[in-house]
Amino acid sequence: MKVALIKDKSFDFSKLIKEIKSSENISKCGAIVSFIGIVRGIGRDGTRVKKLIYEAEENVVLKELEEIREKILRKYKGVHEVIIYHFIGERDIGEDTIYILVASEHREEGFKAAREALELVKERVHIWKKEITERGAYWIMGEEQVKIG
User: Fold this and answer.
1) Which domains does the chain have, with CATH numbers?
2) DSSP code per residue over 5-33
3) 144: closest CA among 54, 43, 42?
């Protein structure tokens, strides 16, 4: 599976390394670039974050993630595989939130592709993030916080 939503808190990242290394065109690659997003303990306003809760309409999000994956593969000719996994549900401080892996012929193109994939996920994918802080709960929408309740 090249894109997925993860609910299992004990998901093992090393499975994705094995998966990308077993890709059809891995022999053409000289780099695997990875990005791991984690839950930060301090909010944008300096407030202590207790946890995040990610919610998603799974079928819609999986389609959006696959579209991003395909776009990156089309744009970067030296990129031969892209994997994007995003966690949903409750995530505690320091826990992983997203994995992006890119197998590429050269590292520079791999880093560019991974960064673009991440930015596209943040801009286009309909995953809602609720931030639970010491001052209350907020929906995070881009750079904005909207207080709940």
Assistant:
1) 3-147 (3.90.1170.40)
2) EE--TT--THHHHHHHHTSTTGGG-SEEE
3) 43
pTM for this model (two decimals): 0.94
Of 83, 69, 109, 70, nearest to 13 by C-alpha is: 83
CA-CA distance, 7 to 127, in Å (whole number)?
13
Helices (H), ranges, 26-143: 58-75, 107-124
Say how far apart CA 137 and CA 146 lie, in whole Å. 9
Give the C-alpha distances (Å, rounded to integers) separating 62 from 119, 129, 136.
16, 16, 30
pLDDT digits (tens, 9 = 90+) for 73-95: 999 999 999 999 999 999 999 99
**pLDDT 10s digits, 100-124:** 999 999 999 999 999 999 999 999 9
**How far is it, in rounded angstroms, from Cα 53 to Cα 50?**
10
